[in-house]
Amino acid sequence: MRILVVEDERRIADFLGRGLQGAGYAIDVAPDGATAIQFTHDTDYDLVILDLMLPDMDGLKVLERIRGRPSGPPVLILSARGQLDDRVKGLENGADDYMTKPFAFVELLARVRALLRRGQPTPERLQVGDLVVDSLRRKVTRGAETIDLAPKEFGILEYMMRNKGRPLSRTMIVEHVWDMDYDGLTNIVDVYIRHLRSKIDDRYPEKLIHTVRGIGYMIEAPEKSANKPESGNPMHAAG
Ligand code: CA
């Protein structure tokens, strides 16, 4: 899940960025309206958190541009303007929610999760083989066992589960789970996949995470119908 924070106040942007990253989201920060419009043009965000008072333009203009596209991300306005008509104007212009500064981070996070859920066409319960990810409660189980994952591990696994059976390049994984600063550091994906495998695959006979040579990784359950005689030659070797 990738979130764009449009905020010119460095202190608030840092606070939001740290908090949301800690919750497992990838964050980009745009310090002004023009950058925000550019970013939303270049990248598919899952959510935009939008300040209204920006140095170069009214945040409502940014909202207008995002809403002008057919399948734009949900927008949460986060603004110091608490007046009723700003709130109404924001919602009338297509914002999905509105919060007033100062705000409690836990409340913001709850609303962010609610919006992401709403914009999510895929179910919150993802399953591959006996591995189940409850993306709402951020809970992972394999069979009867609960598995604890760090936020980034969870982010990678959730992304792979949403794209099960589809090979994902290291760059795709980095772009979905990390922030722009990590561009080019695709080796980090290998490190995290190793961690993930040690938690969800190593102790189980059926491996779910597969290395796709020349591309990256894919998650997929071994095919039940391909139940060939047990010749000790597994189709999907972990590697
Ligand atoms: Ca501002």
Topology:
Elements: E1 2-6, H1 10-22, E2 26-30, H2 33-42, E3 47-50, H3 59-67, E4 75-79, H4 84-92, E5 97-100, H5 105-118, E6 125-128, E7 131-134, E8 139-142, E9 145-147, H6 151-162, E10 168-169, H7 170-177, H8 187-200, E11 209-212, E12 216-219
Parallel strand pairs: 1-2, 1-3, 3-4, 4-5
Antiparallel strand pairs: 6-7, 7-8, 8-9, 10-12, 11-12
Calcium ion binds next to loops.
Structure description:
The protein is an alpha/beta fold and 239 residues long. The protein folds into two domains: 2-119, Rossmann fold, CATH 3.40.50; 125-236, Arc Repressor Mutant, subunit A. 37% of the residues lie in helices and 20% in strands. It has eight helices and twelve strands. It has helices at residues 10-22, 33-42, 59-67, 84-92, 105-118, 151-162, 170-177, 187-200, and strands spanning 2-6, 26-30, 47-50, 75-79, 97-100, 125-128, 131-134, 139-142, 145-147, 168-169, 209-212, 216-219. The strands form three sheets. Strands 2-1-3-4-5 form a five-stranded parallel beta sheet, sandwiched between helices. A four-stranded antiparallel beta sheet has the order 6-7-8-9, with helices on one face. A three-stranded antiparallel beta sheet has the order 10-12-11. The two termini are 27 Å apart. The model is unreliable at 225-235 (pLDDT under 50). Calcium ion binds at residues 8-9, 51, 53-54.
